[in-house]
Amino acid sequence: MTATGTGTTSTLHADAVRTLTDWRPADQDQEQLRLDYLAHLAEQPEGVYRSCLPAHLTASAAVIDPAAGRVLLTLHPKVGMWLQMGGHCEPGDADLASAALREAVEESGIPDLTLLRENGAPVPAKLDRHQVRCTGKDRPENTHLDVQYIALAPAGAQALISEESLDLRWFDFDRLPELTDHSVRDLVARARRLTA
């Protein structure tokens, strides 16, 4: 078994299967997505990497400052919308939670983020399946099977924009920007409930 994704399976793939097998979502739509993700992983040994087309897992996190009741969103240059931090898994990622946390730290510039935990371990907040053109604007759409976490920022944390963003801003939970979609709004609502 290898963590590079070049063998028949990887440490990351095994973690994704374990994470999604153990996770119990609260609603039927999320349960169906969980089963769909597991079916994808059963069919695709490389299903956690961007090279797996037409679908692959991704990892993301809503960065929140619970003390201030705010969420940090990035204005994504390709999508033109305010989104949570996240992206593709990389060969060095040991598990989905680490991939989500790595992306959140890189894109937020906040080094001391921690993922929300349940029984001592990071757990997904929700799943989201969406179409994107991550292989290029002139290439066919493919499917991101996003595993979404909640990253907790220290009170008063200062964000630092990366080259991956057009803009980076904190928004009050009750005043999300217009250019967000239902998935982001749902993730923020879940984060708010889980950290209240």
Automatic annotation (TrEMBL):
Residues 54-193 form the Nudix hydrolase domain. InterPro entries: NUDIX_hydrolase-like_dom_sf, NUDIX_hydrolase_dom. Keywords: Hydrolase. Its cofactor is Mg(2+). Pfam families: NUDIX. GO terms for molecular function: hydrolase activity. CDD domains: NUDIX_Hydrolase (cd03674). This is NUDIX hydrolase. The lineage of its organism: Bacteria, Bacillati, Actinomycetota, Actinomycetes, Kitasatosporales.
